[in-house]
Amino acid sequence: MWYLIALILTIILFKFIFRINIRQIKKQTENQELSEITKRFPEDIEIAKEMLKELNNENVKIEQAKDTGTSLYIALTNKIIIADMKNNYSRIQTIAHECLHSIQDRRLQIFNFVISNINLLYFVIITILTVFKIINNIELPIFIFMILGIIQFSVRSFLEIDAMTKSKYLAKEYIENKKLCSKEEVNKLIEEHDKINKIGIPFVIDNLLNSILIKIVIYVLIIIII
Q1: Which residues pair with 73 in a beta bridge?
Q2: How far apart are CA 195 and CA 217, in angstroms?
């Protein structure tokens, strides 16, 4: 039982330390004035192509997704999937973020994919073995959970923070080069991009940590129930 209490307190502590506020994050991306400015720029796929050209990485596949609010880069297929963000002023920085993922160390990207799936597979297998009482000692499975979690968190957080930090510079360069808005409008966009990063980076770290800890919480709950 003390495992469960410690884990829940840790999750709450991270929320407090990183000052996670979902409403604030959502509100930060809602700005009608900036959304209207961003509409002057090309379609998402065209923006991505231009950014990739600037990064000397034009062999990446680009796909516009209509049924998801999440943009991502898939290392195995070297593909960027861009969410439908037509009315979101942060779309330029988001596209920059995914383009930067595409030029990160491919070994790290592949390793991130592998360790994430190993972690998930381990969770499923160890849970089944515990439910059927094939495993009775919980200390070792939890220890392995923590080791896998630390490895996964270290790699994924590096990739995400690196892309988030650099994306504002790539977005700024792109916005300035297009010359589709005034200097004042450019400054407004960049200022808001900075604010998104200040909120977004702690949110990503907290989310990555929680994705690991919640698996352990579920596992401990199953142990208590059975």
Answers
A1: 80
A2: 32
Instruction: Report pLDDT for 137.
Output: 79
pLDDT tens digits, residue range 154-206? 999 999 999 999 999 999 999 999 999 999 999 999 998 888 888 889 989 99
Phi and psi dihedrals of 74, rounded to 5? -105, 110
Question: What pLDDT is attached to residue 106?
Answer: 93
> In a 3-state reduction of DSSP, which class is residue 171?
helix
Rounded Cα gap, residues 21 and 69, in angstroms = 19
- pTM > 0.85: yes or no: yes
Beta bridge partners of 63: 81
Pairwise CA distance, residues 220 & 159, whole Å: 30
Is the distance from CB of 38 to CB of 92 less than 8 angstroms?
yes
Q: What is the pLDDT of residues 39-90, one digit of tens each?
A: 999 999 999 999 999 999 999 999 998 766 789 999 999 999 999 887 788 9
CA atoms within 13 A on the CB side of 14: 18
CB 87 within 8 A of CB 35: yes
Give the E-state strand segments of the chain in sequence order. 61-64, 72-74, 79-82
- What is the distance, to the nearest Å, from the Cα of residue 168 to the centroid of all Cα atoms in its chain? 15
Inter-helix orientation angle 183-225/91-101, to 10°: 60
Dig out the tokens for 37 from the structure.
Answer: 């400015």
Q: Are 158 and 55 in contact (CB under 8 A)?
A: no
Distance CA 162, CA 159 (A): 5
